[in-house]
Amino acid sequence: MAEPDAGRKSFEEFAAGALPALLRFGHVLTGSPAEAEDLVQEALAKSLRRWRKVRADDPVAYVRRVMVNTHLTRWRRWGSRVRLGDVPEAVADDAGLARSQEWDALRRALAQLPPRQRAVLVLRYLEDVPDEAIAAMLGCRPVTVRSQASRGLTALRPLLAAQTAGTGTGGNTHA
Amino acid sequence: MRDDDSYEGRLRELLRDPGWSLTPPPDAQAWIRRSARRQRVALTGLAACTGAAAATAVAVPLALAGAGSPPAPAAAGHVQATPLTQPKATSVLMPDVTGLKLMNAEAVIRSVTGPVHLVIRHVKVPHHGGTVVGQVPAPGARVSPDGQITITVTVYDAS
User: Fold this and answer.
1) Between chains, do A34 and B29 touch, taking CB under 8 Å as contact?
2) ipTM above 0.85 for this complex
3) CA distance linking residue A92 with residue A105, whole number of Å
């Protein structure tokens, strides 16, 4: 009897600890807060159903993998009908959500990238996942990951170059 | 190379911007368990529908064979299956897919009806999208394999 309780407790601890980071990862991955929440909820629910197996390995990596694959599958199924990654023009004018111009520019630039390329960049530069692990996650070769990352970086380069050049010149909306 | 490093560094920095942070839902555990329950229901429904479809696929040809040919003398304890001509496609009962996620709904429908023409309509909502909120024909109605099914799915709209 103690075992299921222990499993439940360990899952709750894991979910509580990992949730903020997973939500942020989902947000960067999808570009949409609602889609991010949906993705995290689904991935955590999946990991809860297989918790005994998942906990023995690397639960965060498992949840991340489920999120990426679910997102890419949804994109393939829905991509032609709905652009889930579309960025709303207006950002909420809540003071707590005040954004820098460069963050907003990156948000828009990421939304233009193909989802797979975006996933590679997010895994590589936000989560610092090695190329080999990204390749295993996406079911491709490390060389493909490197080329996707290179293409994504090239697409973002004009933005990053402008921001790098403009750093310290007041390209920020914060007072 | 130096430029590459600085771009990568800048990207890393921007991806870690606090603007990406989201507030976790107040009761995260219940939120996760709700989704797990939905997944279980969807999987159970899918398994049941697949089982029903398989049973139909076996039962219908056997029933047609029974009706179309005189009863063959069967050896005691044996049921003899007669080779059949291809049976005509029959209509099936429309499953209830409301409340399911689009992906699960599609899987359930396809498993029951086969390659039916599926039309997906979208309705914008100010909260999480991706859930089926309507379907035509209604649950329990008959659908022919060459018929059309329309399902209405919510799509998140921030505006």
Assistant:
1) no
2) no
3) 15
* Mean pLDDT in order along chain A per 10 residues (175 residues): 68 91 93 88 90 88 92 72 46 49 81 91 94 93 94 86 52 34
Cβ contacts of A126 on chain B, cutoff 8 Å: 12, 15-16
How many domains are there within chain A? 2
Structural domain includes residue B129: yes
Mark which of A86, A106, A131 sits at the end of a domain.
A86
From A34, A77, A157, residue closest to B128, measured CB to CB: A34
B128 touches chain A (CB under 8 A): yes
For residue B106, CA distances in Å to B14, B16, B75, B92, B137 come to 38, 36, 44, 16, 14
**Which domain, by its residues, includes A123?**
98-175
Name the pTM for this structure. 0.59
Task: Give the Cα separation of A44 and B155 in Å (integer).
Answer: 22
Any CB–CB contact under 8 A between B130 and chain A?
Answer: yes
Evaluate whether residue B30 is within a structural domain. Answer: yes
| Of the partner residues A104, A126, A164, the one whose CB lies closest to the CB of residue B7 | A164
